[in-house]
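INFO  loader      accepted 1 record
INFO  loader      residues=74
INFO  predictor   begin
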Amino acid sequence: MHAKILAPLAIALLVSACSSPQPTWRKASVTPDDTKSALAQCKYDVGLSKVAEAKEQELVRSCMESKGFRWVTY
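INFO  predictor   done
INFO  writer      dumping C-alpha cells
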C-alpha cells in the first residue's frame, strides 16, 4: 500500500527538482554552446595567471561580465 503512494510522490519530487531554475551565464542572442565557449576561454585565460582560487572565481566573473554575460536565474 505504501509503495503505491510513495512511488508517484518520489517521481514528482524528482521531476520538480530537475525543473527548478539554476543560475547560469546568460547573454541575449547567444547560444548555450557559445556561452560555454566564452566561459571556457575566460577560465583558460585566468588559469594562466597564478592567483588564489577565490581570486580566480572573481576574475572569471569579471571576464564573463566584460563580454556582456550576466549570472542570472531564469
